């Protein structure tokens, strides 16, 4: 079905809501996979849950605070009943049961050297966790038992990691040198170069598994067809997006892979929205008269009706995407 780029553009400013949280920056935003709930966490170690709607009052649901634990990674576990939080300051994870309000500390198995668990990804089914480790390694762990499942090695330090959508057997990673690595837990490995990358910063795969976006410290985001990436060591980008002025820190796709949001936390107003099929970046998002803070993270709701934006000043922004009807 064909859509115009105008149709996907966010609604007017009246359909935006924001709240200032008692933490700055907001490092992670996550939508619940079933319920209309937005979860935000950040430098204060607080995890806060909000009801998703465009009213600016009465949306707060619950919160928990982890002592000396600035949250830098967050993911949802099987069934959406619990979330996992990691910090670059601590050598353990915090598991938060959303229904019971219970908190559990999870430590690495003894076979793994002590180190922080500040950057990780969780598989779609919530069963596995892949953490970026020291010495250019990735440890794949059982999210329930914390048992070590696999150790993966890269040629240089890693910047970003993600499970392939719908799979708990394939992991994609971006090195700081701009190399993309595909690992199969059965032993297969494929390595390629992100064209023009000086230093890789962020990797993100579209939910349909057909597109991969690679962000770099120059602000350029390259989009590739996954089929091309699998079959070549030097694939050519399908789309090159040069619109950010500074390093790309966060990327998110809509559920149908029609649009992509991407941002940088180095300067204010550095967030863009791309219509992928037409390679068009919306010039009026954000609107010219608007001054958005430094942006740390972006994420779409499960069916893309909302875009969450976490900011360095503690502001949490919720944009209504008028083309999409469902949460």
From TrEMBL:
Annotated GO CC locations: Pwp2p-containing subcomplex of 90S preribosome; small-subunit processome
Claim: Hydrolase is one of the keywords in the record: no
Subcellular location: Nucleus, Nucleolus
GO terms under biological process: rRNA processing
SMART domains assigned: WD40
Keyword vocabulary terms for this entry: Nucleus, Repeat, rRNA processing, WD repeat
Family that this chain belongs to: Belongs to the WD repeat UTP18 family.
Protein name: WD_REPEATS_REGION domain-containing protein
């Amino acid at each position: 079905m064909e859509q115009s780029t105008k149709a996907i553009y966010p609604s007017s400013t009246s359909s935006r809501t924001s709240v200032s949280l008692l933490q700055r920056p907001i490092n992670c935003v996550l939508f619940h996979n079933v319920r209309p709930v937005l979860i935000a966490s950040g430098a204060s170690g607080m995890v806060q849950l909000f009801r998703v709607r465009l009213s600016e009052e009465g949306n707060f649901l619950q919160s928990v605070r982890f002592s000396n634990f600035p949250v830098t990674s967050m993911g949802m576990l099987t069934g959406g009943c619990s979330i996992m939080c990691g910090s670059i300051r601590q050598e353990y994870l915090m598991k938060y049961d959303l229904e019971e309000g219970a908190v559990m500390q999870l430590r690495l198995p003894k076979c793994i050297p002590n180190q922080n668990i500040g950057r990780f990804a969780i598989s779609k089914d919530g069963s596995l966790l892949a953490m970026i480790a020291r010495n250019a390694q990735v440890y794949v762990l059982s999210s329930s038992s914390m048992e070590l499942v696999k150790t993966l090695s890269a040629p240089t330090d890693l910047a970003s990691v993600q499970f392939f959508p719908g799979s708990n057997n394939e992991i994609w990673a971006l090195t700081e040198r701009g190399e993309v690595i595909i690992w199969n837990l059965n032993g297969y490995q494929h390595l390629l170069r992100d064209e023009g990358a000086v230093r890789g910063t962020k990797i993100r795969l579209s939910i349909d598994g057909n597109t991969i976006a690679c962000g770099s410290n120059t602000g350029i985001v390259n989009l590739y067809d996954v089929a091309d990436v699998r079959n070549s060591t030097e694939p050519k980008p399908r789309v090159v997006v040069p619109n950010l002025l500074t390093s790309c820190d966060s990327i998110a796709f809509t559920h149908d892979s029609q649009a992509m949001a991407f941002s940088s936390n180095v300067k204010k107003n550095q967030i863009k929205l791309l219509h992928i099929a037409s390679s068009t970046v919306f010039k009026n998002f954000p609107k010219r008269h608007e001054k958005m803070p430094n942006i740390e993270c972006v994420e779409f709701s499960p069916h893309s009706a909302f875009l969450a934006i976490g900011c360095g000043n503690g502001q949490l922004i919720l944009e209504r995407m008028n083309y999409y009807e469902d949460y």
